[in-house]
Structures are given as structure tokens and as C-alpha cells.
Write a structure and sequence with these properties.
alpha+beta; 13 strands; 30% strand; binds heme C; Immunoglobulin-like; 17% helix; 237 residues
Amino acid sequence: MANVTHDRVLPLLLALATAAGGILLPAISFSGESSGPRLSILAPREGAVLRKGRVLVIGKAAGGGISNVEVDVDGKGKQVAAVRGGGFSAHVPLGSGRNVIRARAGNTAATVTVSAVDKPSGGGYVYHGGVEKCAECHGPPGKGFAVPAPRDALCYRCHGRQDKGKLAHGPMGNGDCTACHDPHGSAHKALTTASEETLCVACHDQKSSEVHFRKSRGKACTSCHDPHSSDKPFLQR
Ligand code: HEC
Ligand code: HEC
Ligand code: HEC
Ligand code: HEC
Ligand code: HEC
């Protein structure tokens, strides 16, 4: 996850806490409640492995009425990205090894740590095809980046229907493609938001499935189940 730091406020509070004899202050939320901007990096994701060279950074800047965000890598090559409609993007160069990509506006920053190699051998981060053309999915710049639900109408503009089977999987009923897919990019097969087992079990942790999950351990859930829809009971392939 992109972490938000308020690097001026935090040391001050820590100094106050120390001055007060080390008594811990009650939990304070540093994000969401201040009037400043809230930054997050949507692509690439924390821990991603990418090919070294220039990569696209996509971020969200909500609130605070800011018009630009500075994006840098390990404090170098600072770029100023315009914020329009609450989103921004910039191309930044990644060198070999560990890179900290930072987006910053005033006292607020969001970072992701990624690594760059000559050629990712499986498990590398893949961008969604054509992702640099933001307007294909978000409309003209300045209109904002919110995508109306259900999302499937957007996805089906370019992809074949995934709901041809008689029985549709739960999230498909709401057209909620992004319950499982990251629309900007991912390091997982088919641009899913998590590895398959983590993804499926995140919604299916029911006690009643425990035995089933244990028995199927080691086999991909989608080797037996279609994640979208099926004519057979229990979404079997
Ligand atoms: C293939 C379609 C697609 C493309 C291309 C795309 N996005 Fe998105 N984007 C989405 C979808 C869908 C969502 C909603 C994600 C969700 O459901 O969680 C989203 C969410 C966002 C958000 C968060 C909006 C919010 O209100 O939370 C921002 C900001 C954003 N995109 C910026 C961009 C930028 C900048 C680009 C171009 C560099 C871009 N996107 C390209 C589909 C796309
Ligand atoms: C403007 C056209 C466009 C839109 C809209 C679009 N996509 Fe895509 N998508 C592409 C392209 C191009 C590719 C890369 C080529 C390919 O693999 O089919 C791609 C690839 C994918 C892949 C990877 C396919 C694979 O075989 O690994 C998935 C999954 C995907 N898109 C899901 C979505 C979802 C979910 C949405 C809606 C949030 C969406 N797409 C919206 C154009 C689009
Ligand atoms: C419950 C999770 C889930 C939901 C919801 C979901 N998908 Fe998928 N999708 C997957 C998984 C897992 C795969 C890869 C496994 C497979 O089908 O082989 C995949 C594969 C894909 C692919 C690439 C393979 C192919 O069949 O062409 C596309 C395109 C795609 N999904 C589009 C969509 C669209 C569009 C929606 C919304 C209408 C959607 N998905 C909703 C989990 C999901
Ligand atoms: C975003 C939440 C979500 C995710 C992620 C998800 N599911 Fe589901 N799934 C549901 C809901 C909701 C239903 C319908 C209610 C139910 O039967 O539990 C359902 C139903 C099912 C069913 C049918 C159960 C029945 O009784 O007919 C199967 C099988 C299934 N899911 C498998 C999977 C697999 C495999 C994955 C991973 C690719 C997955 N699910 C990911 C929410 C999810
Ligand atoms: C070897 C094939 C196979 C694999 C692998 C498999 N399933 Fe199933 N699953 C089935 C069959 C067949 C059923 C129908 C009920 C039964 O026989 O238990 C089912 C039923 C289900 C159900 C509904 C009944 C229940 O027990 O909750 C869910 C949810 C489900 N599977 C999710 C998953 C998930 C998540 C995974 C991966 C962790 C997975 N399945 C892996 C074959 C499989």
C-alpha cells in the first residue's frame, strides 16, 4: 500500500509526546481527516518488479485544491505533474535495483517501493493495455477520474462478454469487474488485484468452505471454477 506521511506534523507530535514524559498519545489518524491533499499511488503497486527504464506512475490526489504534485525517484529527477480532476500521471526513470517512487504535495507524500531489473522473469508488473490513454476510460481530462458503477459497461467496450454462462459469479451480478481486476496494472495473472488463492479466499473464508479449501490446496481455484460465469453448478468449468 502507498503510505501517507505528514513529515512535519509527525515529528512535532513525537516531540510533544516525549516532552509529556513519554506518555503515548491516543491514536490519531494522519490521513483522511486533514484538510490537505490525500495522495496515493495507484500504479505501479508496492513491491512491483519492473523492467528498468521509464515507467508510468498513476496517482490520485483528493482534496486540498492542489494543482500539481512533484514526483521523484529516490529524491532525484523531480518532475511536476499537473493534477486535473483529482488524478495525475508522470513518467519516471527507474535504475537497477530498489527504487522509491515518491509523489509529494506540500507536507503530504505517498511512496511505493519497487525494484527494477533488466528483464522480469515471471511475476513482473504488467500495465493494462493502452493504460497511458487515460481518456479511453475516464473521459476528457478535467472531468475527474471517478468511474461510475457498474464498471462492466466500460470493460465490455473493449473486452468480450464474461457473463455468457447461465450462472454468474457473485460480483459479476453487480458488474463489479474491479472487485478482482486492477484496471491500471498488476503483477498477477490476468491483472488480478492479488494472487489467485488470496483473491478467492478473501471473499470465501466461510467456515463451510474450510474442508474444501484444504482439499484443493496446491491446485488453482480456476482450474475447476470459472471466475466469471458457468452453465454448471458451483461455477464449475
Ligand atoms: C482501461 C481503463 C482505464 C484506463 C486506461 C485508466 N484508468 Fe484510471 N481507473 C479505471 C477504473 C475502472 C477505475 C476505478 C477503480 C476501482 O474500481 O477501484 C480507475 C480509477 C482511477 C483513479 C481513482 C479515481 C477515484 O475517484 O478513486 C484515478 C485517479 C485514475 N484512475 C487515474 C488514471 C490516469 C491518470 C490514467 C492514465 C495515465 C488512467 N487512470 C487510465 C480505469 C482506467
Ligand atoms: C479502451 C479499451 C479497453 C478498456 C475500456 C478496458 N480494457 Fe482491458 N485491455 C485492453 C487492452 C488493449 C489489453 C491488452 C491486450 C490484451 O491482453 O487483450 C487489455 C488487457 C486486459 C486484461 C488482461 C488480459 C489477459 O489475457 O491477461 C484484463 C484482465 C483486462 N484487460 C480487464 C479489463 C477490465 C476489468 C476493464 C474494465 C475496468 C477493462 N479491461 C477495460 C483494453 C481495454
Ligand atoms: C471474482 C473475480 C473476478 C471478477 C469479478 C472478474 N474477473 Fe475477470 N478474471 C478473473 C480471473 C481469476 C481471471 C484469470 C483466470 C481465468 O479465467 O482463466 C480472469 C480473466 C479475465 C480476462 C482475461 C482472460 C479472458 O477470459 O479473456 C478478462 C478479459 C477478464 N477477466 C475480464 C473481466 C471483466 C470484463 C469482468 C467484469 C464483467 C471481470 N473480468 C470480472 C477474476 C475475475
Ligand atoms: C469480491 C468478492 C468475491 C471474490 C473475490 C470471489 N468471490 Fe466467489 N462468490 C462471491 C459471492 C458474493 C458469491 C455468491 C454468494 C455465495 O454463494 O457465496 C460467490 C459465489 C461463488 C461460488 C458458487 C458458490 C455456490 O454456492 O454456488 C464459487 C464456486 C465461487 N464463488 C468461487 C470463487 C473463486 C474460485 C474465486 C476466485 C477466482 C472467487 N469465488 C472470488 C464473492 C466473491
Ligand atoms: C479440483 C477441483 C476444484 C478446485 C481446485 C477448487 N474447487 Fe471449489 N468446488 C469444486 C466442486 C466440484 C464444488 C462443488 C461442491 C463440492 O463438491 O464440494 C466446489 C465448490 C466450491 C464452493 C461452494 C461450496 C463450498 O464448499 O463453499 C466454493 C465457494 C468454492 N468451491 C471455492 C473454491 C476456491 C476459493 C478454490 C481455491 C482455493 C476452489 N474452490 C478450488 C471443485 C474445485
